[in-house]
Specification:
Elements: H1 4-8, H2 24-39, H3 49-57, E1 82-92, H4 96-110, E2 114-123, E3 127-137, H5 143-163, E4 167-170, H6 182-186, H7 188-201
Antiparallel strand pairs: 1-3, 1-4, 2-3
């Protein structure tokens, strides 16, 4: 019988988890429809156990104490000084491989002890959204140096995105960490227009002070 481990070891295979919510009858119907579509492409149904295991344990690797390796322990021990972050960007489909290649190579050149990986979260007709994760380790155990490495790594990651016409942001951010990149993303003229509209609508600077590249006061 097929298992997730066996399938993942086969060239060109990937592991897909499907989930549906709502009333029981609707969930059953959506599940049947999805399975019917997938089976047209040779998908092997592994049943519910693998999906349930993911549901119960999908966040274990973020934290210590669950008896499973943490997310970074594949690369370095938990007590190793390191920095990292999760961000997301949306880029034209035709450039995604080139952006990933250039980003990975530039990051490795700057920090040999680093890794860039992630997943594609959303797909559109002309573009895709990625949630890459960066880890850099074997760094000085100093908050200032770790902070410098973080911002240097992020600059390495977002420059190729802008180069190929994409948009970059912090994952679940509010525009504070990368707000200074707004002129790059919109163009100097475009961001000046946005800033002028903001000043006209919000002369007392109540909305988003210091965020999204807007002035603090």
């Amino acid at each position: 019988p097929f298992s997730r481990e066996k399938l993942e070891s086969m060239p060109g295979c990937c592991y897909l988890i499907l989930g549906f919510d709502g009333k029981g009858e609707l969930v059953d119907l959506l599940h049947q429809w999805a399975l019917k579509i997938l089976q047209q492409y040779g998908v092997v149904d592994l049943g519910f156990d693998e999906g349930q295991f993911w549901w119960d344990h999908s966040l274990d690797d973020y934290y210590k104490g669950f008896g499973r390796p943490t997310r970074q322990s594949e690369f370095f021990s938990d007590d190793t000084p390191h920095t990292g972050g999760v961000f997301d960007y949306i880029v034209p489909m035709k450039y995604i491989s080139q952006i990933w290649k250039e980003t990975s190579e530039a990051l490795k050149k700057a920090y040999p002890k680093s890794i860039l990986y992630g997943h594609f979260s959303h797909w559109y007709k002309t573009a895709t959204m990625m949630y890459p994760m960066v880890y850099i380790w074997d760094l000085p155990d100093d908050p200032v140096e770790l902070g410098k490495a973080y911002y240097t790594a992020m600059a390495i990651c977002y420059d190729p995105v802008y180069k190929y016409g994409g948009a970059f942001q912090h994952h679940h951010g509010v525009g504070r960490l990368y707000g200074m990149q707004m002129p790059k993303q919109w163009g100097e003229g475009g961001f000046e227009a946005i800033r002028a509209i903001k000043d006209a609508l919000d002369p007392n600077n109540i909305m988003n002070p210091g965020n999204l590249g807007f002035k603090v006061k």
